[in-house]
Design brief:
The protein is α+β, with helices and mostly antiparallel strands and 359 residues long. The protein has three domains: 90 residues, no CATH class; 107 residues, no CATH class; 78 residues, no CATH class. Helix content is 24%, strand content 26%. The chain has eleven helices and 18 strands. The chain has a three-stranded antiparallel beta sheet with strand order 1-4-5, with no helix packed on it. A three-stranded antiparallel beta sheet has the order 6-7-8, with no helix packed on it. Strands 11-12-13 form a three-stranded antiparallel beta sheet, sandwiched between helices. A hairpin with a 5-residue loop joins strand 4 and strand 5. The chain is globular.
Length: 359
């Protein structure tokens, strides 16, 4: 059913100009896939897609094939048609990457498969044959971690910015990354204040340098910070009590915010930006199960937040204090941060469903 939307491998090897959003038939896309321009813009995906990339996140599509309505999760991209128009192309989620099958003329070794499963990137240059022209090019190969789709890019087309997060790359490092090489154990600091250690590697799927193996360094650091009682000394005092924090995500905490955190309450930290530069509201709270603080990010425009005070008050009142909210009293699930009404069509139906005596 999706064969007609398959991307021609030949066309992906040619650098395409940015997509002209004004030449996209948005009405047809909404009719065929159930996705709107507004959704793509608010999610930040459109900014990626107009530069001939896939959306960084998955979307739920509801295509109609022969009168039968399907639902599927997929990343999205645009395809340039011969007449200059653009089509929306879905990249559906596969159960697993097909590493045992031949890919553009090569077979992955056991070491290749292990490397792809570990980091998502092959980590070396391979010569791949264009399925349409037969031309052989030196390429980098990666797996899309969300869709399990195997992708490649010719080394000649791989562009690496000289600065990644807080790291300034030398030409020697850039050339090394273009061979599939890994720059080990780098301290990363993101614009939203997050800090962690990770390796750098080029991703053929993202078309940029990405952070890999961060879980390994995080677990290693956690083990080093663990005391005899198993608690992390970053978040606990010598007696095991919760440590007072003066900042979170680079935002200062007032004495009242600090006190609320120590009391186990969810704390509104303030307004900031995520790693993609999107505006968001940051909350954090001590998680007793994880014995560590946990961050929650809320996107006002995306999540239809009415106001900071109201969003916090409604959620706590309904979920924690047993209060009733007329707009959500028919819902079985607890409210999420910022929710003051049904958050999707399914919840709207549940809220509107008439209640009556059992027959």
């Amino acid at each position: 059913m999706l064969k007609q939307y398959e991307v021609d491998p030949k066309s992906t090897g040619v650098k395409q100009p940015p997509v002209d959003v004004n030449r996209i038939d948005w009405a047809t896309i909404e009719k065929e896939w159930g996705i709107t321009r507004d959704e793509l813009e608010k999610s930040g995906a459109l900014n990626q897609m107009i530069y001939n990339r896939k959306s960084p996140q998955l979307f739920t599509l509801k295509p109609d094939f022969g009168g039968v309505l399907f639902e599927m999760e997929a990343k999205l991209s645009f395809r340039t048609n011969p007449d200059g128009s653009f089509s929306l192309i879905p990249h559906p989620v596969k159960r697993a990457p097909k590493l045992d099958q031949e890919y553009k003329g090569i077979k992955f070794t056991d070491d290749d498969k292990a490397q792809l499963r570990k980091t998502g990137n092959l980590g070396r240059i391979v010569e791949l044959a264009d399925t349409q022209t037969g031309e052989v090019k030196k390429c980098l190969v990666s797996i899309d971690r969300l869709t399990n789709e195997i992708e490649s890019i010719p080394v000649a087309e791989a562009f690496i910015k000289p600065k990644v997060a807080n790291i300034d790359l030398t030409m020697s490092q850039i050339n090394f990354l273009k061979t599939g090489g890994t720059i080990k154990e780098q301290f990363i600091q993101l614009p939203d204040g997050r800090q962690f250690t990770a390796d750098l590697q080029y991703s053929a799927c993202k078309r940029e340098v990405e952070f890999v193996n961060s879980d390994y360094y995080r677990n290693k650091q956690a083990q080093e910070n663990k005391r005899e009682d198993g608690l992390d000394e970053r978040w606990h005092n010598a007696d095991g009590s919760i440590k007072r924090l003066e900042h979170w995500c680079k935002l200062p905490l007032s004495p009242q915010q600090q006190a609320d955190y120590l009391a186990g309450k969810q704390v509104l930290v303030g307004e900031s930006k995520d790693r993609y530069g999107h505006d968001c509201t940051i909350y954090f709270q001590y998680n007793k199960e994880k014995n560590a603080p946990e961050t929650t990010r809320v996107y006002p425009d995306r999540d239809k937040v009415v106001g900071v005070a109201e969003e916090h008050k409604t959620q706590v009142a309904v979920n924690n204090d047993g209060k009733t909210n007329e707009a959500t009293k028919g819902l079985k699930e607890p409210l999420t941060t910022g929710q003051t009404g049904p958050k999707d069509e399914q919840q709207k139906k549940a809220q509107q469903k008439p209640k009556g005596p059992k027959v």
